[in-house]
Specification:
The protein is mainly α. The chain has six helices and no strands.
């Protein structure tokens, strides 16, 4: 075999190997597209659709529930009729699950695009065409940045819409709870003010007959019944304050998440425009922390206002009366066994 024949055979082999490599790369991509991307994409889209349906159903109930539920009913976890906070928390879980599905879709299609990029670049690599490789890599990199920005913008839009739903229901829920509290607080305050400053034996407590059956000690220490009533009344009325606080805290969580979404969008925009630098990242992080501090301070102010209303309207007087009754029981020897009630 001559050198020319050997060179030709080597070139033919290289060409055959290149064609085989390209065919294998293309076949691998098509198999991934058929066996993984198509079925998983359909599965994830079905779950996104189902999550969206659940989200919309629950959201449609919230407005009606806010007007039909009795705010003065005892609120307990696990009731057959969930309270507003529980429904909003469930709505938040559904929203977060749907966002996780969107992330899975994004990552699946990103991997598909990365594999397709390798299929496109492989012929250029085998041919040693560096300029073509560079151009293709730049195109796919730009496309990836564009897709990332669109994904983050979509997430921010959904988060903003979700925040609007939560905020409107939280504000309505807080208003309902506050109104219910002020419906009963003045009457309870009036009853508390009838209890004398100096509690003594002359102060008579009327106790239902069935209470004597359950607590025979009330015959000797009727003030124990009064103290138990005060404790129960305090817990029952404070639920209106807790409900407002919990709703405000949930809204704070959602608003903080939206701030994080805005930061990710800003970062994606800067990366796409080639403006992402360490100084810019530090500035963006500082802006995020400042906004989160503002939201936290706002939450603290609102919770403080709610607590002050409770204290001035009922809590302060209730605590003073409880202390006077307790002092009487301790002085007379009737406090023993009351630790659980306290």
């Amino acid at each position: 075999m001559s050198y020319a024949d050997a060179a030709k055979a080597e070139a033919d082999f290289a060409l055959t190997e290149a064609e085989s490599t390209k065919a294998a790369s293309k076949a691998s991509f098509e198999l991934f597209q058929t066996a993984v991307v198509a079925p998983v994409n359909d599965l994830l889209m079905d779950r996104v659709t189902h999550a969206t349906s659940l989200f919309e159903q629950l959201r449609s109930q919230l407005f009606v529930d806010a007007h039909t539920q009795d705010p003065t009913a005892t609120q307990e976890e696990g009731d057959e009729q969930p309270e507003l906070l529980e429904k909003l928390t469930l709505l938040k879980w559904i929203f977060e699950a749907r966002e996780a599905l969107h992330m899975e879709l994004y990552e699946l299609l990103s991997e598909r695009n990365d594999r397709y990029r390798d299929v496109v670049i492989e012929p250029y690599r085998l041919a040693g065409r560096a300029e073509k490789i560079e151009g293709a890599e730049r195109f796919f990199a730009d496309d990836a940045l564009k897709r990332r920005l669109e994904f983050e913008q979509g997430g921010l839009q959904r988060a903003g819409e979700f925040m609007d739903v939560v905020e409107s229901n939280v504000l309505r829920g807080v208003e309902v709870q506050l109104s219910a509290f002020w419906d009963i607080a003045p009457g309870l305050r009036g009853i508390l003010e009838k209890i004398p400053r100096e509690v003594g034996h002359e102060f008579r407590v009327q106790i239902p007959a069935d209470e004597y059956a359950e607590n025979p000690g009330y015959h000797e220490w009727p003030m124990q019944y009064l103290y138990s009533l005060l404790e129960h009344g305090g817990r029952s009325t404070y639920q209106f304050i807790e409900s407002q606080t919990n709703l405000l805290c949930l809204l704070h969580e959602v608003k903080t998440a939206v701030v994080a979404n805005k930061v990710r969008v800003a970062q994606a925009e800067r990366v796409k425009e080639g403006e992402e630098t360490e100084a810019v990242r530090v500035q963006t992080e500082a802006e995020r922390e400042e906004e989160e501090r503002r939201l936290t301070d706002d939450l603290k102010d609102k919770v403080r206002c709610v607590e002050e209303q409770w204290e001035s309207a009922l809590g302060g007087e209730l605590q003073q009366v409880k202390e006077r009754v307790r002092e009487f029981l301790e002085r007379e020897g009737g406090w023993e066994g009351m630790e659980d009630a306290a």
